[in-house]
Amino acid sequence: MSSQSVTPEVLWAQRSSSTEASKNVIYLTLMVSDVPENDMNLDLQPNKLSFTGTSTSKKVSYNVELEFFAEIDPKESKIHHTGRDIVLVLRKKELKDEYWPRLLKESKKMHFLKTDFDKWVDEDEQDEQPDDEDFMSKMNPMGGAGGDGGFGGIDFSKLGAAQGMGGLPDMGAMGDMGEGSDDEGDDDDDMPALEGEDKPTKTGESKPQIEEVQ
């Protein structure tokens, strides 16, 4: 019996810089628990990311494709895999002070896409945010590794290649997504996602109404 196919919850935040490439990034977290490294496909290209993998505990197959608002540099991006999720730091290709207005190219609501408030800071306050050097030191580079690249069975030599995974369905046609959520007791479902120029406020301040990005 085949496992159910669901879209995982995706959290995101960002930083921007016109002078320091390492601070001009997208933070992306795929909430895919208990997916073995040798049983997943992650294809990162300059304009999109595709992921499939099967959870051994939830008995579901995760499937998601994200087409980015602008281009990223796969070779300068990093990844960190845990039992609960996959965290990526995607290097924006264009050095720019301004934030991306949204993560995805298409301005359409995606119920699974949410703002990562643990990593988010307002655009005009990002210089005050200290770099998480300890976390970054745990991450593996995405490009140029080849073979297992220190990250299980994923062939990173294929990342950024012209060919995509192919055969992935449109997000709108992916079955019932509710059963594949990895919230596990937190309140992420109540959090709005970024869209347009609205941004979350800092802790202790009231948050404006923010619509989820689609």
Automatic annotation (TrEMBL):
What CDD domains would the database entry show?
Answer: p23_hB-ind1_like
- Give me the stretches of Basic and acidic residues compositional bias: 196-214
**Entries under PROSITE patterns matching the protein:** CS (PS51203)
What SUPFAM superfamilies is this protein classified in?
Answer: HSP20-like chaperones
Q: Where is the composition biased (Acidic residues)?
A: 121-134, 179-192
Question: Which InterPro entries does the record associate with it?
Answer: CS_dom, HSP20-like_chaperone, p23-like
GO MF annotation list = Hsp90 protein binding; protein-folding chaperone binding
For region Disordered, the annotated ranges are: 121-214
Give the CC-aspect GO terms. Answer: cytosol; nucleus
One GO BP on record is: protein folding
Residue ranges of every copy of the CS domain listed in the record: 5-104
Bias regions of kind Gly residues — which residues? 143-153
Record PANTHER family: CO-CHAPERONE PROTEIN DAF-41, TELOMERASE-BINDING PROTEIN P23 HSP90 CO-CHAPERONE
As for family, the record states: Belongs to the p23/wos2 family.
What protein does this entry describe? HSP20-like chaperone
